[in-house]
Design a protein that fits this description.
Blueprint: E1 10-11, H1 12-19, H2 25-38, H3 40-48, E2 57-58, H4 60-70
């Protein structure tokens, strides 16, 4: 399985598929989004990094924050 380190910019769907490789891209994103929404400290951290919930490309700092709170895929 690919690793996220070093962290790079990536699409939210690509990141979601790393976490949920056996489902469709759309379902993978919905699953990752649900996990993110349940982790309030993660959402607060992402918002401090400029995340607004609509962007399709996540910055390296956002990817790192997600991996920090949810673990590496």
């Amino acid at each position: 399985m690919p690793t996220l380190r070093p962290y790079t910019s990536m699409s939210r769907t690509c990141l979601a598929q790393l976490y949920c490789p056996d489902v469709t891209p759309r379902h993978a994103w919905r699953t990752l989004k649900a996990w993110m929404d349940r982790c309030r400290p993660l959402i607060a951290r992402l918002r401090s990094l400029g995340y607004d919930g609509r962007q399709r490309i996540l910055s390296p700092a956002m990817v790192a924050a997600i991996a920090e709170y949810l673990g590496e895929p």
